[in-house]
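To: structure subgroup
Subject: Chain for Friday's discussion

All,

I'm putting the inputs and outputs inline so they're searchable in the archive.
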Amino acid sequence: MPLIPVGRRYTATVSGSAQKRVTCFSCQASYEYRLTGRAVGGATSALWLDNEGTKERAVAKARKNLDALLQRSHAPVPCPVCGNYQPNMVKILRAKHGRNYDPNAYARERAGTTDQAAWQKTRTENSKAAYLTFIDVWPHSSLTAEAHAKIYEIEGRKRERPTTRRRAIAIRVLISLIIFGGLFFLSWMMFGKRY
């Protein structure tokens, strides 16, 4: 059964940010952080009658989705005074690091400092133990990826790039196909031509 086109589908992606205000459950201090996000929205132009309006509706839907996302989302940002993560942030970190993970175990180490300052101290020490401690104390930081890379460097291992790994797998598959194709061709030449 042939498909009959009935219109055109438009998709829009928007990104934005919102300031989130938090009151710490532990020390009652109030602090803010910026949350960024991206959202997608779509609309269909029936029978291609309103393409421009459909584009605008797709963008409006994406903006509405972004507003809803930023309204209900949270990022794991510790209290700058006591270093504790809020209960909704603990859930996010446990989803990432495991059910038994306690991000507030290192609240004292986080209190009164930033991940940037802790990173400078860790870089000065430059040991595997220092980088592992940084990863434990600052699980939300974007610098944890760099800490993992430094651990690899200290251990003398090179981090294999995903493209290199994919290329190696593709080469192995290609070689296997050539070998099996050659064997199939030889067997056909030897046994397939008898009639």
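Points worth raising on Friday:
Helices lie at 51-72, 87-97, 107-110, 115-125, 128-137, 144-155, 162-191.
The longest strand covers residues 7-23.

D.
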